[in-house]
Each structure stands twice: as C-alpha cells, then as structure tokens.
Amino acid sequence: MKKNIWSGASVLLAFLFLSSAHSQFPAVELEIVRVNDDMYVIHNEFVPGNVTALITDEGVLLVDAKFEANYERMMELLGTVTDQPVRYVINTHYHSDHSGGNALFKMIGAEIVASEQARYRMVDDNLPGLPNFTLEEYARIHIGGKVVEMYYFGAAHTDGDVVVYFPEYRTLAAGDMFTYGDATPQLIDYRGGGNATAWTKTLDGVLQLGFETVIPGHGEITTKAEMQNFRESTVRLRTRVREMSRQGSSREEIAAMLRDEYHWQDLMMDMGLDGILAEMR
Ligand SMILES: [Zn+2]
C-alpha cells in the first residue's frame, strides 16, 4: 500500500525536506491565541495544523489535535487558560498533523469525532486513536450551554473534510479546505479522495454559513472574505492548469507555473500534480 506522505512519521521528513527555515520541527513553537471570550487557537507556523479550543464549564472541546509530539505542550498551554478536562476532539480530516494527538486525548477520556470517510482513511493508514463518533452530513455537540455544529459538504482537501461552526461566536474552524498564507497553498490529497473541482463546490456550501471569523487549517486567524478569495484562487488555479494542458504545455511547465504563481512546494507537487493534470486534462 502506498503510504500517504502527509500522514504518519513521513510527514516529518517531507516537512524537513520542504524548507530549512522550518528545520527546528518538531520542536515547533506553539502559542495560544485568544479568539474571543471562551475560544482560543493553539497556533504555530506552517505544520502542524491549528487547534481550536472552546472552553466551557462542562469541559473543553478541541478541533484537531496536531501531532502526538505536540500533546504535552498543547496541554500545558490549555492549562494556562482553564482547568477543565478535554471532553471532545473533532478531527477536520484524517491527516496526522490534525489527528496525531487522538490516542493521547482518548487516554484522558476525550471522545474523538470525525466524518465517516476520515475514519475510514485512518483505519486504512493504521493511524492510532480512531474516532468513536462519526457523522455523514451534519451533527451537533451541546456542551456547557454552547452549540457546536459539524458539517460535511463534500470532498475538498480530502474526501472526509468537515468544518466546525460555532454559531454564538460566528466563527468557523475550517480544517485544510482553507489554508491561509503563501507557505500553505492548496494541497490536493488525491490519494485521500481530494479533488480540485469538488473543492470549490464544497467551499460554496460552507460559505453559506453565517460566520465572520475563520480559523484556517494552517495560518493566521482571518475572515470569511479571505476564504472567498481562496475559493477564487482555486478556480483560477484549475483554469490555468486546464488552459496550459490544452495548449500542450509539458508537465514541467505546469509544475513551474504552480510553483511560481501558487507557491506549490514539493509536498503539494508530490500529492497533487499527477492528480490535477489528470483532472484538468
Ligand atoms: Zn491536511
């Protein structure tokens, strides 16, 4: 079986390969940033993904879990803002820079929640800490007087991406169907069921929700307008690849365009180039 390089320990190698500027990983600096009253993001540059924390008097709900190696530091940072236990961890998708902490969170009694497709991918990749709750299209968690809504609108970065909407805060945790900043462009995980055409349809569904603030899968906290821009950029990327492909451009020329205009690095190329060439033929 071909192993997904964005999952498991090999993501670490891919990461080190990507940029010497980030070669301090996995001793990556985490920080906890307040989004509003009861909501925080445990943030770092680039990889692993953002973790959103909702603090309530019935416990803490997290969206995503970074790598297993980040668990202790995450708990330390959470301890600076609450003494409540972690009760839920929602995985936006199966990649281990978002689900790697699952097994350790399970050991302290947290329930792990993901889409059925994401769970399937985790089983397929032998990832530890499998979700014990799954959803197909929609589910809610009620905790500490707050409602947390999870939506599955279709494939995007993978075929198991869910977004988590916090209506009281008009805030969305988007997972990797929206990454923000040049360092983390669209990564289309074709092996994991990702697809560039489905991606923008899925974003169209998400953009109907009433949020204003967005916590991207990777990158700084931002706005719905930036998510809209990301959607447009994904449409342009698709159009560019299709046009070049129809004009007879070579694989190398298209790769160079993706590198120059869309900041694709080796990781995006390895996971997405063959797929987008086939999809946009
Ligand atoms: Zn991912």
Mean pLDDT over the full residue set: 92
Order of helices and strands: HEEEEHEHHEHEEEEEHEEHHH
Strand content: 15-25%
Outline: globular
Give the CA-CA distance, first to last residue. Answer: 26 Å
Structural domain tally: 1
Share of helical residues: 25-40%
**CATH class descriptor name:** Alpha Beta
CATH architecture: 4-Layer Sandwich
- The CATH topology label is Metallo-beta-lactamase, Chain A
| Uncertain parts | 1-25
CATH superfamily: Ribonuclease Z/Hydroxyacylglutathione hydrolase-like
Count of DSSP-assigned helices: 9
Number of strands: 13
Task: Give Rg in angstroms.
Answer: 18 Å
Write out the strand line-up for the largest beta sheet, numbering strands in chain order.
1-2-3-4-5-6-7
Major beta sheet, specifics? 7 strands, mixed
User: What small molecules does this complex bind?
Assistant: zinc ion
Description:
It is built from 9 helices and 13 strands. The model is unreliable at 1-25 (pLDDT under 50). Helix 6 (196-206) packs antiparallel against helix 7. The protein has 281 residues and is α/β, with parallel strands linked by helices. Bound molecules: zinc ion (ZN). Residues 6, 93, 95, 98, 157, 176 line the site of zinc ion.
